[in-house]
Specification:
Layout (H helix, E strand, L loop, with lengths): L2 H20 L3 H17 L6 H25 L3 H14 L4 H13 L3 H14 L4 H35 L1
Helix pairs in contact: 1-2, 1-3, 2-3, 3-4, 3-5, 4-5, 5-6, 5-7, 6-7
Length: 164
């Protein structure tokens, strides 16, 4: 198989993964995405690596985002975070990547990391319903964390008052 055929096969596997995802066949989608990654990460070998680098990385960002989507459907937020970070390392400006990272951080309770990512997504897509939905979730989590902090401090001060 020559370099172009290897690249094309990687793209073909990605497209197969997309079709499986649409059907709700998540394990098959992941298998196809994994095969796509194997092809795209090795395309060009040592001698033609630079020739395929940009196109391969673009495909890999899409695949990693797609894998994140699969894992989000399964509520596997550690895996969403893992693949979103891989996509982010290749393209830190990708909005889908930022959104998936924010979702993963939010589901893990990390408001401080989720907030700037969601704000960036909202800035780029002010009418995106999913982003607005996640922002509402973020606000709820922030309020909950604030209430817990207030309770801790209230109890701490009450204890100090009784200890006098």
């Amino acid at each position: 198989m020559n370099h172009q055929e290897t690249f094309d096969k990687g793209v073909e596997y990605r497209l197969q993964g997309n079709e499986a995802f649409k059907k709700g066949e998540y394990q098959q989608a992941l298998r196809s995405y994994y095969h796509a990654i194997l092809h795209l990460r090795t395309v060009g070998g040592n001698e033609k690596k630079d020739e395929f680098k940009e196109a391969s990385e673009k495909q890999l960002v899409t695949i990693y985002n797609n894998m994140s989507a699969v894992y989000s459907k399964q509520d596997k937020w550690d895996r969403v975070l893992e693949y979103s970070q891989k996509a982010h390392s290749l393209d830190s400006s990708n909005i889908k990547t930022k959104f998936r990272l924010a979702q993963a951080y939010l589901r893990r309770g990390d408001v401080d990391r989720a907030k700037p990512l969601l704000e960036s997504c909202l800035e780029n897509n002010p009418n995106d319903g999913l982003v607005k939905q996640e922002m509402a979730q973020l606000k709820k989590l922030e309020q909950s964390q604030e209430a817990k902090e207030k309770s801790v401090y209230r109890n701490m001060f009450a204890k100090l008052q009784t200890d006098k």
